[in-house]
Amino acid sequence: MLFKNGKLSVRLLELKDNSILVKWLSDPIVLEFYEGRDNAFDLDMVHEKFYNRDKGVVRCIVEFDKLPIGYIQYYLLDSDDSKLYGYTDLSDVIYGMDQFIGEVAYWNKGIGTLLVKSMVEFLVEQNQADRVVMDPQTWNERAIRCYEKCGFKKVKLLPKNELHEGEYRDCWLIEYIK
Q1: Can you give the residue ranges of the N-acetyltransferase domain (predicted)?
Q2: All domains of the chain, ordered by start, with CATH?
Q3: Given CA atoms 154, 122, 54, 17 in this order, what sign does their dihedral have?
Q4: pTM for this prediction
């Protein structure tokens, strides 16, 4: 387990989690906000995206009251992302992170805020992060409100940054500074 905060815990992704990822990533309600409703996952896609990829990304399952409810990942920003985001002149330790709550019954209960705050605290304290960044799509106002409650600030607009449901969508670069 990476950390625990009350009923919330985050642990490393295990192979046995593949079926829960398929469940979440084939739910149109979840896909509306993560990956897109035109991109439902099957077991092969889950293995391709979550298990057979870059070793620099730390992939985790989010549990609440010992039940898996979501996914979170974090990674040191690479040179391509640093360039895209405009961090080429900084010597800061910068982490990126992405997450979703896959169990819709756990939405709108403050768990996302608790998760983001807890992960930022973990990255700052355990990984010596100076900054943590994310790039949510501009239309995802609920997520952006959550991130702003956690201390993130909008830094710059990233036009047509992410393909979602057949079109490239604008995203905000948001950052938390220690």
Answers
A1: 8-178
A2: 3-177 (3.40.630.30)
A3: negative
A4: 0.95
